[in-house]
Amino acid sequence: ACDDGEMVIKFSHVTNTDKHPKGIAASLLEERVNAEMNGKACMEVFPNSTLYNDNKVLEAMLQGDVQLAAPSLSKFETFTKQFRIFDLPFMFANVEAVDTFQNSDAGQAMLDSMQKRGLQGLEFWHNGMKQMSASKPLITPADASGLKFRVQPSDVLVAQMEAIGGSPQKMAFSEVYGALQQGVVDGQENTWSNIFGKKFFEVQDGITETNHGIIDYLVVTSVDWLDSLDADVRDQFLTILDEVTQVRNAESTQTNEAAKADIIAAGGEIRQLTDEQRQAWIDAMKPVWTKFEGDVGKENIEAAQKANAMVN
Amino acid sequence: MEIALLFGMVIGLMLIGVPIAMSLGLSSILFLLWFSDSSMASIAQTLFEAFEGHFTLLAIPFFILASSFMSTGGVAQRIIRFSIACVGHFRGGLAIAGVFACMMFAALSGSSPATVVAIGTIVIAAMKQAGYTKEFAAGVICNAGTLGILIPPSIVMVVYAAAVEVSVGRMFLAGVIPGLMAGLMLMIAIYVMARIKDMPAGEFAGFGEIFAAFRDAAWGLLLIVIIMIGIYGIPGVTGAIFTPTEAAAVASMYAFFVACFIYRDMGPLRTKDGERLALYQNPKAIVTAFFHKDTRQTLFDAGKLTVTLMFVIANALILKHVLTDEQIPQKLTQMLLDAGFGPVMFLVIVNIILLIGGQFMEPSGLLVIVAPLVFPIAIELGIDPIHLGIIMVVNMEIGMITPPVGLNLFVTSGVANMPMMAVVKAALPFLAVLFVFLIMVTYIPAISTFLPNLVMGPELIVN
Amino acid sequence: MTEDRSFFDTIEETIISVLLGLMTILTFANVVARYVFNSNILWALELTVFMFAWLVLLGASYAVKKTAHLGVDAILNLVSPATRRILGLMAAFACVSFAFLMFKGAWDYWANFANLPQTEGRWFPLGFEESFRGKGWYEVNDIPVPEAMKFLEGLLNDGDEYEKMPRAVPYMVLPLSMGLLLFRTLQVTWKIYTGEKDMLIVSHEAEEAVEEAAQQAKGT
Ligand code: NA
Ligand code: NA
């Protein structure tokens, strides 16, 4: 709990505190802020959407009711359509490429791109690459045709599922496990850690290692709040945040690999694709790029491709 | 200490006659203005979020609507006829049939008072005619009606699922065995009492009547099949077809269709003299049924009920938000764990809180407030969330038939046309049955968790 | 129903019925679309949820007018009529306070989405803020913006195109409904003061409902 006279930093997020890459990072940040900034600032973390869900947390931040959040990048598409680049299928080769892009000039410029809306991006937090799962084996894109896929609310992801002939569906997250199990929806896409954490592998035929997209988060705050801080407090806070980011981002690949191993150990079926098979998925999904090229900007796409080249 | 002030304020306001919803809302606002830095806008945001952020709550208006069409559409008396044909010839048969009918109607309707009104209106009068005392009849129906929220579908379960983010489908399955058990226990208690007091028995009308009554009630009972197969599918044949919310909407459409076009107890195919027209005699009914005054009235009644119930729930969610904002659940969890409570003591405390709370509060609103407070503790203590949910529902059932506030008491006193205190006394012997049942449900988790774990696998617990 | 229905009653009752009917049909249609046409009305869920919010929030003031809100009447039924009137006035004052504070909160929340100023002051509105960040650009998740609402682009979004409906539209119900609630609670306070009513909550409505059901049961 916070003492009198301490500035309260409320951090609202939507995952658990000890198993999810985001939750672990948030807990580490809380621990360090409360230890090192004791007397000046105090952080209260609200996990599991207990305070706000991803749809509301940014509204609340602009109102000044919460100071820190880390929604997935697709949540920022309402603020600036550039962020759609992170949802475009096969835009990034792997997490290193994502990291390289985010640290490039183009990526860093995106942190500031929402200032006129009142939001300041601080750091990107990694989760990992997305995989596809369904109630039947997915080897070619044609296998996905006619299936119902649960997607996050994003026009890009809707278009992506339609591009492979699937039917995108919305539903409450608490119902997804049951819906997959019972066939209200047939499939979904997620990172290894999310698939393991929510046990989706138990109720799917198998998971195909497509690495077709990414799930990443943006730690974000409000411009007004950040401006209101004393310079030394702000610097100390941002330094801690940066260090936590370095530590946790370096671990994220490991976290997902561990989750993948756990899925196999628990008897989940994981299917690999040959290069030709993967190419077929690329050919089926990549046309989506054209539709959103205007939104994300040619220069950003080029920077992303350059990042891919650099890590390969 | 602040939390005592908050709850004191809520109860104080309620007692002087402020509507429950506004007692919750006003107390939360004042608490926020005094103790927190959060903005007033966040209160309005939370009010809207009650709808926007909880897709599961959307099932509530649809289940209310389905139940309204079933009540006005003549399903209740067909179910009662079938019940009497089945068990009416036992000693105390009409009372047992009343319980059986309540169980069947409970499987169509998500609410307890609705079950009492639908079944009680007919059965209590019939029992008096057959020579039972009015008190006995009222006691039976008042208790059996509470099964409305235990046997799925159940509005209270939907609220619990939304408040702690568990699957509605799982909760519904968990209610099946306890619901059947509670019904059976009530029937046995009645049978024993009937033997001792030598109560009347009806005559067995033969298997022909059972069959005929079943055929007549089948259209209504088919709704149970639609809801259950819709949500769970048939193992090995088909997967599930809709989410619980969609199942509720489909149920409403089906109930409307049965009421207007098959039973024709309402709508354009029923003439002023009570005759039932065939569709070819009035083909434009296909369109006019949607706008017929009976349909409009049913929609309005269900809508009004939705408004009053959801306004309570929405304001309870504001209270929940304020509690979360002040990190009260965490503090409470820490306090109880530090005090060294184990699961057994903890469940006793939960039962006591709910039984007392049930004296003042409408069940759904109480659940919204209590569930997030006790849920984190339950998880820490390793209690299954689904089991906790069923315990809460059974507590709510008891709250409905104990004074001073019990929705079933009010409704029954209306149905039976007797003073509320008389109903309270009449309900007492059966209340004892429900208490025994509560203890069983509390300390035998398998009663609740066996079926959902069998069908859907073990509940995954995510902190 | 024994009371005569006024013109406004009819409007409010129609809104309640129509919203509930549309919600049901839309959800049903989405199921049909999924199984018969293997497609999905992607915005159906969000639109249904907004109609749900409008139904309940607008209905809340109707329920005040009709004394339909749930409450505890145990104490009110014990005390003398004079005491009941005093408690009634206290309760009414609490309801007015609730509606007033909610109205302020609802305005503050909605105003920014409509590029209007929030109020200053924590308890009481002490005027409007002078500088603020408009959020007129903020869109809902799924519902496309209908042609008829295109004019909002100039009004709220500096002429930029909306892909989805601006949030200002569904949220508008908040100040609207809470304003209505304030009006209705003031009205009922007056009625309690003049002795025309004695409480704010439903007391024997259950009995009336039962009578109605009994009438229907007899009629069939
Ligand atoms: Na039920
Ligand atoms: Na009670």
UniProtKB/TrEMBL annotation, chain B:
Source organism (scientific name): Litoreibacter roseus
Gene Ontology MF terms in the entry: transmembrane transporter activity
Family: Belongs to the TRAP transporter large permease family.
Cell location: Cell inner membrane
Residue span, TRAP C4-dicarboxylate transport system permease DctM subunit domain: 7-447
Protein name: TRAP transporter large permease protein
A GO BP entry: C4-dicarboxylate transport
Membrane topology label: Multi-pass membrane protein
Self-association and partners: The complex comprises the extracytoplasmic solute receptor protein and the two transmembrane proteins.
Domain of life: Bacteria
Keywords: Cell inner membrane, Cell membrane, Membrane, Transmembrane, Transmembrane helix, Transport
Pfam families hit by this protein: DctM (PF06808)
UniProt xrefs under InterPro entries: DctM, TRAP_DctM
Gene it is expressed from: dctM
Keyword Membrane annotated: yes
From TrEMBL, chain C:
Keyword annotations from UniProtKB, A to Z: Cell inner membrane, Cell membrane, Membrane, Transmembrane, Transmembrane helix, Transport
MF annotations from Gene Ontology: transmembrane transporter activity
Assembly description: The complex comprises the extracytoplasmic solute receptor protein and the two transmembrane proteins.
Subcellular location, principal: membrane
Topology with respect to the bilayer: Multi-pass membrane protein
PANTHER family: 2,3-DIKETO-L-GULONATE TRAP TRANSPORTER SMALL PERMEASE PROTEIN YIAM
Taxonomic source organism: Litoreibacter roseus
Protein name (database record): TRAP transporter small permease protein
Tripartite ATP-independent periplasmic transporters DctQ component domain residues: 23-111
